[in-house]
Specification:
Order of helices and strands: HHHHHHHHHHH
Strand content: under 5%
CATH topology of the largest domain: Serine Threonine Protein Phosphatase 5, Tetratricopeptide repeat
Radius of gyration: 20 Å
CATH class of the largest domain: Mainly Alpha
Number of helices: 11
Helix content: 40-55%
């Protein structure tokens, strides 16, 4: 471990930029990982230390680094950390990064019911039409997890009815719905 690296981690935990400056001056690397493969930026998001995000970005931290397949913005979105998400977007985080199954930060926020983060991402320009590797988009995800408030927000943002959109996605597929009593639709 580089000189000053442990002190940088301590500075992140304490939200102490003076200590972080000292650690970086001693040779700490803002993109180095700790024993758990977390960079200081990932640690800032995990610990909800949003104040450290612009500081680390100004020191050259990779704002789109990957931790266990997720970017810092995806982690903030799925954990409901609104301030961290705001700071990451302001620092230039990629809104369209996808993990191995195609999940984006917008999808993660919609899945987990964080409407304020969904709104933030949409306002920042996140693409609601992006699909996962299984072909699902954010509207499908919000419907699947029954987040009516997010569905309504997505309808307002996209200008389409989620119900009509969902049905149009089924067009061309053979769908059999068993209603019991030998009746099928």
């Amino acid at each position: 471990m580089k000189t000053g690296q442990k002190e940088l981690i301590t500075a992140i935990k304490l939200c102490d930029t003076s200590m972080a400056d000292w650690a970086i001056g001693m040779g700490a690397d803002v993109n180095a990982t700790d024993d758990g493969d977390m960079t200081p930026l990932i640690l800032s998001v995990a610990r909800d230390r949003s104040e450290m995000i612009p500081y680390l970005a100004s020191k050259g931290a990779d704002i789109n680094c990957i931790y266990q397949g997720f970017t810092p913005l995806m982690i903030a979105a799925q954990d409901g950390k609104l301030q961290c998400a705001k700071m990451l977007i302001d620092a230039g985080a990629n809104l369209e990064s996808q993990e191995q199954n195609g999940l984006t930060a917008l999808m993660a926020a919609a899945r987990d019911g964080y409407i304020d983060i969904v709104r933030l991402l949409l306002d920042a320009g996140a693409d609601w039409t992006t699909k996962t590797t299984a072909g699902n988009d954010v509207i499908y995800i919000a419907r699947y997890f029954k987040h009516a408030d997010i569905i309504e927000l997505l309808e307002q943002h996209s200008g389409i009815s989620a119900q009509k959109y969902f049905l149009s996605e089924l067009a061309g597929r053979v769908v059999v719905i068993d209603c019991g009593d030998d009746e099928k639709i």
